[in-house]
Write a structure and sequence with these properties.
Layout: H1 9-15, H2 20-25, H3 29-43, E1 50-54, H4 60-67, E2 71-76, H5 79-86, E3 91-95, E4 108-113, H6 116-119, H7 123-136, E5 137-149, H8 152-160, H9 166-178, E6 180-181, E7 192-195, H10 199-206, E8 213-216, H11 227-232, H12 234-246, E9 259-265
Parallel strand pairs: 1-2, 1-4, 2-3, 4-5, 5-7
Antiparallel strand pairs: 5-9, 6-7, 8-9
Helix pairs in contact: 8-9
Pfam families: Methyltransf_25 (PF13649)
GO molecular function, one term: methyltransferase activity
Keywords: Methyltransferase, Transferase
Amino acid sequence: MTQSPEFPPEILDYYVRGREDERLRTGRGRLEFWRTRDVLRRVLPPAPAQVMDVGGGSGVHAEWLAADGHDVELIDPVPLHVEQASRLAGVTAREGDARALEAADASADAVLLLGPLYHLTDRADRVRALAEARRVVRPGGVIAAATISRWAAVHDMVRSGRYAEEPVRHVVDDSARHGLLRGNERIGFTTAYFHDPDEILGEFADAGLPGARRYALEGVFGLYADVEEWLDDPERRELLLGVARRSEGEPTLLGVAGHMLTVAHT
């Protein structure tokens, strides 16, 4: 196998703080989690399937995938994440890089890239990761990749009130223009790449995955100040998730959602 490329140290430093697990299990992050789970349950092969969760973090998604009956292998470059995921029932975890997977050709039914494309700031690296996923997936399998939307940082800073701070405004406005975020403590995130909703289709196609379908995850609802109140109320939550599903493929709303899931079948 080829040697795994290096990973930027500032990104590793951000994730060793262990915040990612809590982000998706509490607060407004639950909307992203529940919507990701909803889409994946519709597009993945029936259980039991061999699912490779690449960049799967602490195993937030691997946990429910295993509970659904899938055979889940999690791969992540952060040792803390691998340690956390290894404790989950039905999940095996090891260190690795999305751009150089230590896996045989056609050895998985599905490959998930629910984090790597955020932090591969060079297009060639993103295409390389998608091509690696295609190599590993069996014919008829599924590849699903998450991306952060181009204007997500601007929206987050406006909602939090920090957009009024000139240094913050400068950084996030730049990310909306060019896609590259130079994260810092004031913004609360690390170095990342934010996609225009159309460019991911070109990256999939260049990796040998034409005809991919895009799903807006949070829709416009992630922008709502009171979204946590909706998520806390089971009845209102189901209404919110229902309309988010119905509008997930609406082209005029794709770029408004904070995150998008793009899915291809081999």
